Every structure is written in structure tokens, then in C-alpha cells.
Amino acid sequence: MTTAPGRDRVLAAATRLFAAHGYDGTSTRQIAEAAGLNIATVAYHAGGKRELYLAVMERAHQAERDAVEAAVAEFTPDAAGVHRLLDRYVDFCAAHPEIPALWMHRWLSDAADIAGLEERYARPLLDRIAGTVRAVAPPGVDAGYAVMTVVWCTHGFGQGGVLDAAGARRSLADDAETARFRAHLHQLIGRLLCI
Prior knowledge:
By secondary structure, the protein is mainly alpha-helical. The chain has a single domain (57-193), classed as Orthogonal Bundle (Tetracycline Repressor, domain 2). The protein has helices at residues 4-21, 28-35, 39-46, 49-73, 79-95, 98-107, 117-133, 143-160, 175-193, and strands spanning 162-163, 169-170. The chain has a two-stranded antiparallel sheet. Helix 1 packs across helix 6 and helix 4 packs parallel to helix 7. The longest helix is centred in the first third of the chain and has 25 residues, at 49-73. The protein is globular.
């Protein structure tokens, strides 16, 4: 019988490594070492690399889905509601940087042999948010692309950041730069949606 603490330990190590190096750049041996276990114990608790990846992506989806549902529940169809929705997403990405990192690896063709995760996990959430934003989008504005613009920008900023005057990278880990980024997104989406 698999114990939850052992499985959680393996999944936590796998999440860190898949987020840092991608599925293709991570081995089961690396996951075992990061978890402080041998490969047989990892397999006992969580299966092989593919099963680990699927479990990591399922957990990431659950966390993201919960955040989206909470943000949509407090949405109001006005500028304040749109900005609050945007802020909740930025906050989520700052609190869980591994999740945007996992998706960015997939965008770059990582784990290409594991199909269907976008349709199963990403598409329903994007459609949910786009449907919400559609309530305030003027005619002719593609709400899906408006939502994806926020996702692309937030993931890129969170993973790559921006260079400051001294050449240092600043991203979601930097509160002042995140405030600047957030203000930029508010302005960008405000202009796009005419709010």
C-alpha cells in the first residue's frame, strides 16, 4: 500500500525537477535522488517517469482550477472585476512558479509524446476565463486571445523576468517589479477591453 507522505515527497521532487528541466530533461534517477529515495521506492510510490509527470500535471491543474474558480466567483463585469481577475492570476503564478514553468516547457515541445494535457487541463480553464471576460469585452475583441495575452505575458515575466538598469533579472519574486508588471497588464488589458 502506498503511503501518502512517500508519494507526496516523490511528487514534490518531480515537480521541482520537471519545472526546472522539463520532462525530457529529467530522469527518474534524478527524481529519486532529489526525493532521497532509490528508484524502486519511487516506482512503488508513484510509478515510472510518465506516471509521475501525469500526476504532477494533474496536481498543477487542480491548484490552478481552484484558483480560477475562486477568482471567477468574485468577478464583477466591470474594470475592477477584470483587474481583480488579472491580479488573482498574477498572484497565483507568483505563489506557484512551478506551474507556469511546467506549461512553458510544454509550449516548447517538452513531453511531446504525452498528448492531450492541453485539451484536458488548459483549455477548460482558458474557456472558463474567456467566457467570464466576454461579459465586458467590446464587439470585435477576441476574449480568448485577451486571456492568452495575460497568460503569455505572466508566464514569460515569471520565468524570464526583465532586466533592470544594472542588468539583473527581475521577475515575480521581486515585489516592486511585480507591481510595475501588474500596472502594465492593467493598462494593456484595460485598453484592449476599453474599460
